[in-house]
Amino acid sequence: MPEPPTADPSQTIGEISTDEFMQIMLTNALSPMRVIEQFAAQVTAGGLIGVMSSGQGSIANNESGQRELYRGSKAALNMFMRSLAARPTMKARPLVTMAPGWIKTALGGPDAPYTIEETIPLLVNVLLEKQQRPGLEISRLSRQYGSLVMITPRATAPQPPTFGNRQHPAPAPPARWQAGRAVLRCPRR
Ligand SMILES: NC(=O)c1ccc[n+]([C@@H]2O[C@H](COP(=O)([O-])OP(=O)(O)OC[C@H]3O[C@@H](n4cnc5c(N)ncnc54)[C@H](OP(=O)(O)O)[C@@H]3O)[C@@H](O)[C@H]2O)c1
């Protein structure tokens, strides 16, 4: 889970207390992976496992900075999911990390452009569509296309993105998506 809404987004990583660092990393990065490892055996062999990440966990897209601890915790979660996906026991399993965009919640605040009600169906569609595709994929909310797009990590076979919202056919994706190296930006705060 994220930083408290009252946290100062300009606080640098060096200014953060060790206790807060441990709490956020424990909650956002370690705990989801512990849950997965404890419960993976309860999921059928080809069953889907997904985690909620954030666009702010993207290393490539971080040009604006801010929220350094939150970003670091989500980047760590993303890396742990890549490591999970690389395990031989996980090769046949669909895995997904989701970045929902900027949502009106206690964390996102009232200025966020998207509501929970319009975002949850998109997330459910991502999970449903991902069920039959083994390997790790990353979904991000695209403001431009108004839907969740699935991005295939470069390590696996390039595929065109899958649009989560079937009710709104999306335009042809930019060429760079077809190369499996999409760079999408989540809404800035
Ligand atoms: N909102 C956004 O703009 C946004 C953007 C990108 C990613 N995300 C991600 O989406 C997920 C949900 O965030 P949100 O915006 O929905 O935040 P939220 O409204 O504050 O909801 C957080 C949820 O997590 C629970 N929770 C909080 N701290 C916890 C803890 N230490 N242990 C167990 N559960 C805890 C809360 O439970 P209680 O209700 O019982 O307090 C609540 O159900 C997070 O992983 C967040 O990083 C959100």
TrEMBL record:
InterPro entries, sorted: NAD(P)-bd_dom_sf, SDR_enzymes, SDR_fam
**Coiled-coil features, chain-numbered ranges:** none
A GO molecular-function annotation: oxidoreductase activity, acting on the CH-OH group of donors, NAD or NADP as acceptor
Q: Where is the signal peptide?
A: none
Q: Which PANTHER family match?
A: SHORT CHAIN DEHYDROGENASE, SHORT-CHAIN DEHYDROGENASE/REDUCTASE SDR
Please state what the protein is called.
Answer: C signal
Q: From which organism does this entry originate?
A: Kluyvera cryocrescens
Recall the taxonomic lineage recorded for the source organism.
Bacteria, Pseudomonadati, Pseudomonadota, Gammaproteobacteria, Enterobacterales
